[in-house]
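pasting for ref
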Amino acid sequence: MKRSKKAVSVILAAVLVSATLAGCGKKDSASGGAPFRIGVDQLVEHAALDASYQGFVDALKEAGYVDGEKITIDYQNAQGDQANANTIAQKLVNDNDDLILAIATPASQAVANATKDIPILVTAVTDPAASGLVASNDAPGGNVSGTSDLTPVKEQIDLLQKLIPDAKKIAILYCSSEVNSKIQSDMAIEAAKALGIEAEEATVSNTNEIQQVVESLIDKVDAIYAPTDNVIAKAMPTVAQVANANGLPVICGEEGMVDKGGLATYGIDYYELGKLTGKQAVKIIEGKATTADMPIEYLSKEQCKLSINEDVAAQLGIEIPADLKEDKQ
């Protein structure tokens, strides 16, 4: 009987030691323990958000963290559905991931609402503080930090005036449910007013309304400004098809929208934004920083670039000024 009790004690001790080591190893992939688990909740597929994710993955690789080796990445895409984003957020929390990356404001809000314990990095969010994700952008103070895709809105409106110097009235096209887009719209209205340009908001609640809303702007405005709005970016081919056919130039918030038929942008590089977020993730993995004391980071204006769709310019009969041609090269 004594031997039996002793054997049980030895077994229990071994189980406790194994559990302790396993728990430590999960959070210490840099030391060769179990892979560090990263869950990803991306709102929708379009060029900017896809580039952000790829930049994030590449930054991890450059630091020696390859998916399937030191880390595992569980990538999930909500396909533009908020309910899906919420479900994905809950799944990643239930999986007890070590870190969650949320791409775009609605996905970030879904994840932040699902957990106050797991570290969260957000990207492609215009203003995390205004979106209720952090206490302040300089000092987040909780389990959320990341990077902002705040675009140079003033410079984009300046670009609009350079390309369409006779523009007197513009429409700002965005989805009314996206907080980040409303922030940009307010900035665009202020920038346009400073240039003596009248600006009005043209909002949609979903992709089904886009064609009708753009058609309603024909002969009413001289140009459209479309900020970095996920709904508009996803449906940019529809926007461009209607607008370009009716001689209505579209100045965009980011390069992917120009590639899909917009006229031009002066915007950030979403791949580089993703890399910046990936570098933050490395600091968390290696225990060098926490989200609470990690300020929201931004790309510099030097990392912004001019993109002009010359085919669209030709279609619209717009001559590109010489100084913009030089900046584009």
